[in-house]
């Protein structure tokens, strides 16, 4: 499996890009001990105009490079944690619905559809607006709008695995239903879940950026979306203020998508578009 | 006789990393006009690849390395794609194993046949329709007017295969390639399709290349036979010659492996019963809503039978006869609507879910599909010890027992720490048997346990079961669609049809002196029945 993943050029590029972003996020406090909010020079300095400020300064004279590095922390944190929370909601719900069927399935699926009928982004805005916009509430809001597809995927996977003969064999061995679900069925559904999760992190980062762009970000956390949002009025005079955070988002999301696709091909060798031959 | 197709030294390469360099190596064959050539081999022998190469249907990465295939003075392997396309259907036609997937599910049968004409730009709309109707009539489909307006899902398996044959015959091909066309069908349907192919051959004088794994089918229809193994041709000759006097070791083994109607020695059966089924009923309801009437199928309809301790009872029937449902009801994977399943003094049919879990070990099952019946993410040890540990057997004891069982089924104790994907189909079936034995059951239900296996592997698994029966005095309810297999292993045979038990009796009685019309039909439909008979007499 790992071999197949490694031989996938795109996926390896994705890994390299993602690792770079993670490293930058981790060492941000070392690189920029003053933090992202500190005013360091006069405003609107173009990139490379002054030594030590390779990406220039923003409308208030803050270091864009520092903002980008700290923004990476927020984006990655929100992306990972919200995806984890979404999995924690979606996987058990989908598994129960798919495994037990009947009323459990009906109930869980109607509940899921209730969330699916509301546009994702609108619901996220409403949730963040109701709570105070903090990192916690943003993460939670993103998780709440992104779990339904997980539940549906897990349900479908569980239903197909449940019909296989080894599940009958486990029943004949006298194992209890919860044990069959956890020990026999769920391990066989992890591959698509991992693939989906890697893509969900990307979506969550985009959602967070969009929320911050609209000014619904955590006011105490620097984020890429906030940077673009703040720079939108000066986009014609100071292009670099929206360009670099935009590139950062593109790189991170692209990296995650490449990884997700690589994982998918590695887990399902029969489906990969490029045959071995 | 004139030659229709001559294949010379055909070699087909496999992509790198495959288990062998060539799918087909140096194979030469000739089919004469009006002749049926059977290509026999087990899975992976390259028999289908040969056919696909002739049709230009090789999968990506697999290609013809050398050799020629002369058809009508042209080498079909070297033709440009456009010429190949003109050839396919018109001169060489093919029918496949699974007619449901080979037909377009969204097109009416008549349209699919007409499309063959359309693809080759022949005839007008109404002419095509008329010809489609004629073809449907020729292949013996009932009610042709209605059939050409039907969709594939509305037809039975046998009817679909007839429709496929009608499509293949549309342009009067000189060569018909049939790739296991009867493997997915019931015996009686298979007999009809074989007869149809024989009829058509006689009427149209076309050559047929018939790919099969079943020597019974060979005995039924072949003029010439070639036997393939791992891509190489091991034997060729007249059908009668090969069947009666095989030269190659491998052919002999294959022929030995087929059940020939030699009956096992009758054994004294114990009076104590391992399984007693009384008046068992199971109905399946489908549909049913506000406006739809409920459709009810009596899958098992008032069946009573007993399996004595140490007995192997064969349960035979065609698909839809309810034999699998009966098996699944007996282990209570399906809860019956009525009746009793008595095992060791306990009625499994009425236990509650919790009580049942305590009694689960009494009846165990060996499943049909060796690939689906083991959890791909669990080591063999886990599969074998889950049940016993759950019953309270200490872990060390269960593991020791598992190793011992793996030895007994012929895999060796070190198989325990490996994952299912490291084993072949036959080995997995052995693991399935070991798993059932680990629970120390009073009865094992084998649901088509050898149907998915190649003949030679099938023979080995049957040997194992026979062996276990002696050693452990096992009681087995052996469910199969194949009377020949049942005859090899079973003490008695029960025949089911449409949910009812038609006949039950000793193997010899069922085979030599069947009481019921349906049993006689089943026996007559067994391919190669005539050929096997003389051996029966000597046995």
Q: Can I get a quick summary?
A:
The complex is a heterodimer of chains A (about 280) and B (about 550). With about 280 residues, chain A is mainly α.
Morphology call of chain A: elongated
Number of DSSP helices of chain B? 21
- What is the multimeric organization of the chains shown? heterodimer
Q: What structural category characterises the helix and strand content of chain A?
A: mainly alpha
Largest sheet of chain B: 6 strands, mixed
Rounded Rg of chain A: 22 Å
Low-confidence stretches of chain B: 533-539
Which class do the helix and strand fractions of chain B yield?
A: alpha/beta
In the predicted model, the low-confidence regions of chain A spanning at least 5 consecutive residues are: 272-277
**Number of helical stretches of at least 4 residues of chain A:** 11
Mean pLDDT of chain B: 86
Strand content of chain A: under 5%
Cα gyration radius of chain B (Å): 25 Å
Helix content of chain B: 25-40%
Largest sheet of chain A: none
Can you put this structure into words, describing what you see?
The complex is a heterodimer of chains A (277) and B (539). Chain A is mainly α and 277 residues long. Chain A contains eleven helices and no strands. In chain A, helix 6 packs antiparallel against helix 9. The C terminus of chain A is likely disordered. Chain B is of the alpha/beta class. Helix content of chain B is 38%, strand content 25%. In chain B, the strands form four sheets. Chain B has a six-stranded mixed sheet, with helices on both faces. In chain B, a hairpin with a 2-residue loop joins strand 4 and strand 5. The longest helix of chain B has 18 residues. The radius of gyration of chain B is 25 Å and the shape is globular. The two termini of chain B are 39 Å apart. Chains A and B meet through helix 7 of A and strand 16 and helix 14 of B.
């Amino acid at each position: 499996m790992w071999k197949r993943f490694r031989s996938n050029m795109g996926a390896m590029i994705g890994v390299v890009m993602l690792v770079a972003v993670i490293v930058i996020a981790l060492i941000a406090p070392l690189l920029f001990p003053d933090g992202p909010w500190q005013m360091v020079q006069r405003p609107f300095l173009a990139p490379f105009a002054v030594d030590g400020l390779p990406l220039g300064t923003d409308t208030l004279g803050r270091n864009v490079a520092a903002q980008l590095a700290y923004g990476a922390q927020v984006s990655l944190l929100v992306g990972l944690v919200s995806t984890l929370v979404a999995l924690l909601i979606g996987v058990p719900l989908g598994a129960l619905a798919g495994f037990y069927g009947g009323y459990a399935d009906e109930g869980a699926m109607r509940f899921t559809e209730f969330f699916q009928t509301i546009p994702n982004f609108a619901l996220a805005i409403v949730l963040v607006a109701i709570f105070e916009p903090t990192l916690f509430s943003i993460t939670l809001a993103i998780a709440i709008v992104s779990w339904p597809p997980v539940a549906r995927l897990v349900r479908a996977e569980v239903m197909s695995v449940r019909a296989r003969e080894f599940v009958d064999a486990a029943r004949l061995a006298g194992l209890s239903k919860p044990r069959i679900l956890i020990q026999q069925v769920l391990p066989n559904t992890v591959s698509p879940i991992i693939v989906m999760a890697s893509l969900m992190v990307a979506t969550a980062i985009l959602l967070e950026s969009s929320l911050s762009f609209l000014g619904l970000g955590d006011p105490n956390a620097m984020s890429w979306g906030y940077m673009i949002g703040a720079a939108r009025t000066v986009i014609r005079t100071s292009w670099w203020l929206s360009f670099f955070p935009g590139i950062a988002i593109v790189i991170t999301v692209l990296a995650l998508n490449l990884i997700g696709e690589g994982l998918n091909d590695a887990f399902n060798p029969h489906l990969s578009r490029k045959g071995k031959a | 006789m004139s030659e229709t197709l001559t294949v010379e030294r055909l070699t087909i390469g496999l992509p790198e990393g495959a288990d062998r360099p060539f799918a087909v190596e140096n194979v030469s064959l000739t089919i004469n006009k009006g002749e049926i050539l059977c290509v026999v081999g087990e899975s992976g022998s390259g028999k289908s690849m040969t056919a696909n190469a002739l049709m230009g249907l090789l999968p990506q990465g697999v290609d013809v390395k050398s050799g020629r295939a002369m058809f009508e003075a042209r080498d079909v392997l070297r033709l440009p794609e456009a010429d190949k396309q003109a050839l396919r259907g018109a001169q060489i036609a093919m029918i496949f194993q699974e007619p449901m997937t080979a037909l377009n599910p969204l097109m009416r049968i008549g349209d699919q046949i007409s499309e063959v004409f359309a693809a080759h730009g022949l005839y007008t709309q109404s002419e095509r329709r008329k010809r489609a109707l004629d073809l449907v009539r020729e292949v013996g489909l009932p009610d042709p007017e209605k059939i050409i307006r039907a969709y594939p899902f509305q037809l039975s398996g046998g009817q679909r295969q007839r429709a496929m044959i009608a499509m293949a015959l549309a342009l009067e091909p000189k060569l018909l390639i049939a790739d296991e066309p009867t493997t997915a069908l019931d015996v009686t349907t298979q007999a009809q399709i074989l007869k149809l192919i024989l009829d058509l051959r006689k009427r149209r004088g076309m050559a047929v290349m018939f790919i099969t794994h079943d020597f019974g089918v060979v005995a039924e229809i072949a003029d010439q036979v070639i036997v393939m193994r791992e891509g190489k041709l091991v034997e060729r000759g007249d059908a009668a010659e090969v069947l009666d006097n095989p030269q190659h070791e491998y052919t002999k083994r294959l022929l030995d492996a087929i059940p020939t109607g030699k009956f096992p020695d009758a054994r004294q059966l114990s009076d104590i019963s391992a399984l007693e089924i009384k008046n068992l009923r199971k109905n399946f309801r489908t549909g049913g809503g506000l406006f739809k009437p409920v459709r009810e199928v009596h899958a098992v309809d008032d069946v009573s039978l007993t399996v004595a301790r140490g007995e192997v009872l064969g349960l035979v029937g065609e698909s839809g006869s309810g034999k699998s449902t009966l098996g699944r009801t007996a282990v209570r994977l399906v809860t019956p609507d009525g009746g009793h399943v008595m095992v060791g003094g306990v009625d499994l049919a009425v236990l509650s879910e919790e009580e049942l879990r305590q009694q689960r070990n009494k009846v165990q099952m060996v499943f049909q599909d060796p690939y689906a019946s083991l959890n791909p993410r669990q080591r063999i040890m886990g599969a074998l010890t889950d049940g016993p540990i759950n019953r309270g057997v200490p872990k060390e004891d269960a593991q020791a027992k598992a190793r011992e069982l793996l030895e007994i089924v012929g895999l060796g104790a070190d198989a325990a720490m490996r994952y299912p994907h490291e084993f072949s189909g036959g080995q997995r079936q052995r693991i399935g048997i070991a798993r059932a034995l680990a629970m120390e059951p009073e009865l094992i239900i084998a649901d088509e346990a050898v149907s998915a296996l190649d003949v030679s592997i099938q023979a080995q698994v049957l040997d194992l079961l026979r062996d276990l029966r002696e050693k452990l005095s096992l009681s087995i309810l052996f469910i199969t669609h194949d009377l020949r297999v049942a005859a090899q292993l079973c003490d008695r045979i029960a025949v089911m049809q449409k949910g009812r038990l038609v006949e039950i009796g000793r193997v010899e009685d069922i085979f030599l002196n069947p009481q019921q019309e349906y049993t006689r039909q089943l026996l007559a439909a067994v391919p190669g029945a005539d050929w096997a008979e003389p051996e029966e007499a000597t046995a």
